[in-house]
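JOB MANIFEST
job_type = single_chain_structure
chain_count = 1
residues = 232
[input]
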Amino acid sequence: MTAEIHHKHRDVTGGWLRPAVFGAMDGLVSNFALIAGVAGGQAGQRVVLLAGLAGLAAGAFSMAAGEYVSVASQSELAQAEIEVERLELDRHPQAEQRELAEVFQARGVDPEVAAEVARQLSRDPNDALEVHAREELGVAPGELPSPLLAAVSSFLSFAVGAVLPVLPYLLGAGSLWPAAVIAALGLFAAGAVVSRITTRAWWYGGLRQLAFGAAAAAITYGVGALIGTNGL
């Protein structure tokens, strides 16, 4: 008889939603703050537009490169440790089986049951490697993240967020206010979406992200105004 499932859990790791939304928020906050700083220095429309496009390109490529190197390094380290585990299973299978049994015993399984479970799991080398990798390293040999996918996702999500405050200038706006309105709506929406993976209310998440973004933009606008006023 199949056990009934009476409840479902949300994805506590955030899945694709967390990195996508946070990448977009990063692009939105950083690029709007950059635009606000340049606009605060009384720069013309073309200069602000150039700064926004440059910030979009530089930030998106920087995010992609950083994410690629970070994920690739993490995967290479995991692969190296998995290879160490593979060699140990080949050279000392009995010792590794006892080690696995001790892991189960530490979790409260009776010694005899733990030894039998470890024996059965160790019959197939591939299954044994996967179990050891999960238990000792917290990873699965066939489920390591893709550096290329991470880089592309970071590039696109950052670019989506960064392009929002640039749109009004692309359409001919000559002041910061249209960009500020679009950025504010984007920040609130992103914060509300993030609330899906937290216990916070959607309006709280939206207002919190809006407050952080507004603070960053206000500071850079003030710096730009100060530098522009002093002719530096």
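[summary]
The chain is about 75% helix and 0% strand.
Residues 77 and 222 are 44 Å apart (CA to CA).
exit_status = 0
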